[in-house]
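TASK: fixed-backbone design
INPUT:
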């Protein structure tokens, strides 16, 4: 019996690498619980199941999105302001930051990360 269980586990591990799940095998979203259900609501059931299979119960925390999101927001604010169609107060309201923060964002010089340092 133990040998059979190991074989099933190996088959599942090999399938996870390629992860092809037929649509008719997918559960309804109501059948999913907790974070898996939340993930399925965001990315879809098929992709949520693939993530669950790949991480197989391992707790997963996703860090680093805030820095990327802030940089994206700041670039969007700069681009919109440079067009000249919006004033800083309206821009701050639109992006959910204070007026002072909007001025700080617009006053920054964006450094090209690809450029090498001289020192």
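OUTPUT:
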């Amino acid at each position: 019996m133990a040998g059979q269980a190991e074989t099933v586990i190996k088959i599942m591990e090999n399938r996870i690498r390629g992860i092809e799940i037929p649509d008719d095998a997918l559960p309804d979203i109501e059948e999913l619980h907790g974070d898996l259900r939340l993930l399925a609501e965001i990315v879809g059931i098929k992709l949520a199941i693939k993530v669950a299979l790949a991480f197989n119960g391992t707790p997963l925390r996703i860090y680093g999105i805030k820095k990327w999101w802030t940089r994206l927001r700041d670039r969007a604010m700069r681009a919109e302001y440079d067009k000249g169609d919006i004033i800083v107060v309206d821009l701050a309201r639109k992006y959910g930051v204070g007026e002072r923060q909007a001025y700080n964002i617009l006053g920054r010089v964006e450094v090209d990360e690809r450029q090498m340092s001289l020192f």
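COMMENT: The radius of gyration is 23 Å.
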